[in-house]
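Quick one before lunch.
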Amino acid sequence: MPRGRPRSGPPVQVVPLGGLGEIGKNCTALQHGEDVVLVDAGVMFPEEELYGVDLVIPDFGFLRRGGRRLLGVLLTHGHEDHVGGFSFLLREFRVPVYGTPLTLGLVRNKVRDGALHPVQPRQRVRLGPFEAEWVRVAHSVPDSCSVVVRTPAGTVVVSGDFKFDQTPIDGRPTDVARLAELGEEGVLALLLDSTKVERPGMTPSERVVGERFHQLFKKAPGRVLVTTFASNVQRLQQAFDAAAASGRKVAAVGRSMVDVIRAASELGYLKFGRDAYVSAEEANRFPDRKVLLLVTGSKGEPLSALSRIATRSHRQVRLERGDTVVFCASPIPGNEATVARTINQLFRQGAEMVYGPTSGAHVSGHASREELRLMIHLLRPGTWCRYTASTGTSSSTPSWPRGWGCLRTVSCWARTGRCSSSRPGTARWPAGRRWATCWSTASAWATWGRWCCGTGSTWRGTGSSSPWWP
Ligand SMILES: [Zn+2]
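Model of the zinc ion complex:
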């Protein structure tokens, strides 16, 4: 059979329940007959105009209807936009959950233990007509993987979030050899993380952030506050290392930071000296120049530790002149205004601020354009589908992958229940758009099955639930 061609027999449907054309709530269903496996079940954080909404989760109504049977959930990595919707899913479906050890460590408080099945990269798991395999990729949380699902119609690869970091902090780069082997075996379809598709070249290594930490921690006259995604364990490791080199004790401020440091150190993904880590209260007893605080709130969430520090309403931490705040994140699209407000408030308190794209304190965990090209060249998929791209990106670059060696290139024009266009409690898919259309350069597209693109949102918080799935 030619590489990447569909096999005959019943079709396999790929149904994105979220994550397509939007940043967040990544969740993809693969269906063969009545059997379904789900890759990831994430949340999206509400945009500013979603008053009273705490989280936006995928609409799992799809799994409830049509006699579908959910066989299991396959996790790519432990970021909230890939695993945060679990607690909602597992209220209804008692299914096994598969993921690498740290990924499961990060979701352990969301699910009952019996449902969790740790897997190692390159391990295969059989689920009805599907066979899943995990392939290690570099990303901003350790133990990240692409998920390969062998279906009766052919192999579908969900890349998950990834980049080709040549000098990863944990010494475990993307498993290029296995990806190349999969390309030889034949890949029917690739769902590709294209968050940073507009950025040319290669994404810098996470290691450059550590070098910047060493400079900053050494010269800062007072306390240093570093805010980053709590799950970026490699960055936390670099912060611990630089703190040790500059004689600073480390304390975590914010629930998720405390949880991640505990989980990652217990599993051996984060290493530090016995006396290096203290509580936030204990940190107040040390001279300012001997303290590093790791603080949650890099997304500008109003209730996060950093936002409370910025408004002087945090119980333990009060900012003083001479303190340095290192902002290790770029705002998630839609959150720019909130993040800018927090930074302004910190400035007003006299803090030295290190932030922005030229600060050297942040690199993305996502592949740039040349890395996307490399992934496609390694896997040589029959079909290629952008994933996790912002709407602007999706609509402005419809043809850029042409000529990249695929049999077909596909742009999925699904509009993913854009929160910004709906009011909480009244979210409805526009009439006639329930099953969004796909655009394909090849007329043979339909021969291997229906590629159904459609997503929905269920609103949580004070907004009511309004699933739209038929
Ligand atoms: Zn991620």
